[in-house]
Amino acid sequence: MNSSLELQTAIEAAQAGEKIALKYFQTDLEIKTKTDNSILTIADIETEKVIKKHITRQFPDATFLAEESGGNTKENNFWIIDPIDGTRLFAKGIPFWSILIAHYKNGEINLGVCSVPGQKRLLVAEKGKGAFLNGKRVNVSTQKNVKGAFGSFGSLHRFKSPDPILKLTKKEAILRSYEHAYALTFLAAGNMDVVIDAYGTPWDYAPFISIISEAGGKVTDFEGKPWNLNTKNLVAPNGLLHDDVIKIINKI
Description:
Layout: H1 5-24, E1 32-33, E2 39-40, H2 42-58, E3 64-66, E4 70-71, E5 77-85, H3 87-92, E6 98-105, E7 108-116, E8 121-126, E9 131-133, E10 136-138, E11 150-153, H4 163-170, E12 174-177, H5 180-188, E13 194-197, H6 202-214, E14 234-237, H7 242-250
Parallel strand pairs: 3-5, 11-12, 11-13
Antiparallel strand pairs: 1-2, 3-4, 5-6, 6-7, 7-8, 8-9, 9-10, 13-14
């Protein structure tokens, strides 16, 4: 693909982050609990540092919104980083964690990168240029019916009620629970048809706004409203299923 300097920098930053994260993966790590009950390891901190360092080499004035060091969403141009999405999996030695990087400019996400080092999956997208998995262009599925649609839901304890999941399964959707970022890589590649997640931060979702859209899917909140930096939940089906999924999960 003909990528911009921004996307190439994001890819290289993710690869630099991989080297640091993998150095700590499946080792005996000290685990700290943050105020939101998520966990933190030295790998998260060091991986974020090297990603930011790599980006600032190319863009000295870069600003960031990152999981471990924060940032300001009021800026008009910044990078969004989740150094290790799925830290619990990482800490348990399970290779389904991801490194997530996105770029926000002029009110929208214009590129996204998701690296799953343990599975050797690198998914990237840039506005208007398509989505690519390990260099090969990918598209969402062509599943037209919720019945038989295969998908994933995020952490159950984040759902105020299991109703959205139950409503979809009553329509004979086939749902399993995977880490949201890992599931979204399969959605973009056409292996899954729908992903729903009840809670996430900008760094959890931002790369996939670009990736899923460029692969032909649609990402909104549970009410069908467009995603923005304040959106806390996510519905991401292929483009054909989106409206039906929204209707089903909101039906009283």
